[in-house]
Specification:
single chain; alpha/beta; Rossmann fold; 8-stranded mixed beta sheet; 9 helices; binds S-adenosylmethionine
Amino acid sequence: MVPVPMISNTRHLTAAGLAAAVSLGLLFVTPAVAQHGHQQGHSPNVMEYLDRLDRPERDQEQKPAQVVETLGLKPGMSVADLGAGSGYFTRRFVEAVTETGMVYAIDVEPEALKYVEESLVHMHRPYTAEFIHARPGNPKLPVESVDLIFICNTYHHLEDRSTYFRNVKSALKPGGRIAIVDYYHDARSGELGFPKKHLVPRDTVVEELTAAGYKLVKEQTFLPKQYFLEFVP
Ligand SMILES: C[S@@+](CC[C@H](N)C(=O)[O-])C[C@H]1O[C@@H](n2cnc3c(N)ncnc32)[C@H](O)[C@@H]1O
């Protein structure tokens, strides 16, 4: 099955557009995270979840700067943040690829996409991004659209993963890759505040991606609670 390119909410926010939006009073001026907790139109449970993903203490173990640096992103590249959540990584990808690149924020939860889009606007910098409301079995990325599909703490949410990743291959540009970061299913991930039975062991990820036609090409071990694997078709 070839993914159907159904994209919603393309945004190419230039510096001029940003200035215009500010002058029209369309933008908030407080930092994204602080502002989000009080946005109207978001349901409290989802907001709590998204705010939690953005909690500053997370940086200590998630090491986002090191993760992004390791991915070797350059201005002009195209990245998909699959299971974007609050946009914790989406915002960092926008900075790394600049407005000359493209970031796809993808999620099954429309409120998450809205939250991500608002948080990008709050960054007050030009960016090029699209927000894709995915189906559970299809991220709906256009064919040959991305250099990297990044999946943090979302792999274990996906179902029938070998089929999913076999289909997703067509979204990668030549030379494209997939990076998967997710919690270890054992003691290494410590107390997570949710049951670990849904987590996927590192070796299972490798088996599933291999079955889907990928090869493990890199593995980083600097994250204390998560594996960090890179695959190419
Ligand atoms: C634990 S959060 C991780 C968010 C983000 N990647 C991060 O590291 O902060 C998982 C996210 O994946 C989304 N999700 C779950 N199943 C999905 C699917 N099949 N396709 C796309 N997103 C999905 C959820 O709505 C949620 O926002």
